[in-house]
Amino acid sequence: MRRFNTSLAGRIFSHFVVLALLLPTLTLALLGRASAQVATPSEFIAVVEFSNLKEQGTEYGARASSALIGELSKVNNPNVELIPQETVVRAITKLGVPNPPAQFINLMRVAQEARATKVITGEVVDYRVLKASGGKYANVSLRVVVYDVASGLPVNGAAVMGTSTTRPDSTDDKVLINDAILQAAAIAIREIGARILPYGTVLNTTVDRALINQGSRSGFKPGQQVIVKRNGNQVATAKVTDVEFDSSVIKPERVLKGIRPGDRVESVFDVPAVLPGFTATGPKTVTPRRSGAPTGLITTLLILGLVGFLFAQGGTGGQNGASSVTAEAYMDSTIPENASAIRVSWSVNAFSNSQNKVAWQIWRGDRSDAPVAVADGTAGGYTMRSTDAAATINWTDGRNIIKPIPGCTGTLGGSSAQSVPIVTGAPYQFSVQVVQGVDEIDDPNNLTTTTGTTGTTGTTGTTGTTGTTGTTGTTGTTGTTGLGNSGVQAISCYTVSDLQSARGLATALLRPTLSKPDNNAQIQGNQVFSFAITASTAFALQLEAKLEFSDQIDFPKNRIYTVQKKIVSVGTGSFPTVDVSSSSLPSYIKTATTVYWRVGVRNTQDKPGPKPERTWWERYVFSQPRAYKPPVGPPPPP
User: Fold this and answer.
1) Residue of 475, 522, 507, 519 lying closest to 609 (CA atoms)
2) Segment 493-517 mean pLDDT
3) Is the distance from CB of 95 to CB of 109 less than 8 angstroms?
4) How far is Cα 577 from Cα 525, in angstroms, rounded to an integer?
5) CA gap 518, 491 in Å, rounded
6) Contacts from 76-81 at CB under 8 Å and sequence distance 24+?
7) CA-based Rg of the chain, rounded to a whole angstrom?
8) Percent over 70 (pLDDT), the chain
């Protein structure tokens, strides 16, 4: 055996055995590595045959979809998989729908049967052949729409014109038109791929609103349709209601699983409609308009004063009772030095009945189960402080419907919750809704009336002298039906309006405390002005601090000099060295015997920012002022 092991045959046999033992392990390792390099597509796209709007029965619709498939196949995107055309045709045949699918519902059925996440359809709208120097060429106008299958909403698309190359006059028109279709398909895919549609992430939610982290800078616009997704699956559709530079508010319209922070919000793209004909640079298009409120009907109702009709259709429960809602960090002489505050203010919506407003309910983004405060119906604002004590809030829950009238509840303040004070340094999103009483006469559910007083019974006739029975008295008249409460209209029930969100975030901030220089110190030359900001460090605020000088302690208008601004964090801070003896200072500062200085602070993400304590002051929460005294110069010459 030893001699065999050392022989050539023995060594070859030993290597073969070792290789046989290692081969399964090597095979599994290589397969695992290869599978790790294969990306799993997240989008599955189906393309259906296009419609030919100019001349049905021709091949141009099928040619357009085929050209689009060819262009899509050139796109190298591991996250996208193009569903084979055989699968799409099989789905159409199985469902028994026409090809191309003539109705939108059939288009969605085909897409679902083919297990697509996106479906592309389109229209060959128009085409023409024109003479040119040395031959002729063709134009084709093409409209392409990409639908999200889960929501049925358009998420991308293009309206383009393709132009063929110029060819001899003997060339068949069909060849030119097909060439133009190929060019149009290439342009459409290029536009669709290059279009960057806005998207964002849900930051916070209220009862029927959600705040997202992107705004007009990213392309969001009021009235824009959006899709809300979680882990790639649709959970809701919504509409953008309010837009700031870096944030937006959306209102859900169709909720499948509810919206929560972290969900992805994607915009819907409205592809322009294409009309027959051409312009000098492209197809003839019309921007689509989404249907809005029936303004003519609303105007008529306002003129006629048919408030009861509005209530019968949902009343204020279906509209915003408040407008111009603003939340601002707030500071004035009534706020204790150890407290921060936020002021939420609003005005009455012009389309909302100004009567019978019994309460305003203020909601805060960190709480979705109940409002954080309730104000009187005559109020136009509410101030909350960080030092407020926790208390029980009695509020009206619009979801507690006990009558057929939409959103009408029988009990005012029938729900209760515990208030939670604001936290210094926490950014909040606020919303407001109104609780409004419905008069008994305007309540279509109130079908009962109060019976009037019964008329007086007639007097019985007296007996005649001859003993005959007197004439029977007449029956009294029945009382007329009256209104409840002796003719005075009574409150029958209450409606709760939609939530109206504030313009942006508001962060409660304490006044900064000043450190150096000391109060009334005599200083000159280069000085460092330092301060401290006390707030919660849990929110990673980006604060802007501002240093101001004035020759008067109340910092009057036109006597305020902005020295410096800088971005700071919670804690201690200071401004770069300031030359208090500089000749570049305003004359009223250089000649003052006492100069007052202060520091203002604000969260850069707040919109519109802290409420000015005086109308001419900027939007900062300012410290109490300190003073410094420049050195006394030599007496003026005689």
Assistant:
1) 507
2) 89
3) yes
4) 9
5) 62
6) 78/39, 78/41, 79/39, 79/41, 79/42, 79/43, 80/41, 80/42, 80/43, 80/44, 80/45, 81/41, 81/43, 81/44, 81/45
7) 38
8) 75
